[in-house]
Task: inverse folding
């Protein structure tokens, strides 16, 4: 393994840990974790309208949460709400411009 590969792996691990800690802090600051969890559960159960409603509430409650914006965008996209999806994907990218490939 080359030094460049080791550095790339170390950077990826560091980035993942930073993102995890940011998401954890955001979830503590805004009570959106339960709304997001319920939105994802509703989506998985096929209750798509309910899922989008919960995702909207979560994203509105935590406007700086990349996860909340991304979940809302993904569910909106699935339901064909493409303008809404683009808006919230754009917000997620604006919140984490250097991590856009992770969104």
Result:
């Amino acid at each position: 393994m080359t030094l460049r590969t080791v550095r790339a792996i170390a950077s990826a691990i560091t980035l993942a840990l930073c993102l995890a800690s940011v998401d954890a802090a955001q979830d503590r600051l805004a009570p959106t974790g339960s709304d997001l969890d319920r939105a994802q559960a509703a989506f998985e159960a096929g209750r798509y309208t309910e899922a989008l409603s919960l995702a909207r509430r979560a994203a509105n409650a935590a406007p700086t949460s990349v996860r909340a914006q991304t979940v809302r965008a993904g569910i909106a996209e699935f339901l064909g709400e493409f303008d809404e999806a683009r808006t919230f994907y754009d917000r997620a990218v604006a919140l984490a411009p250097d991590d856009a490939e992770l969104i």
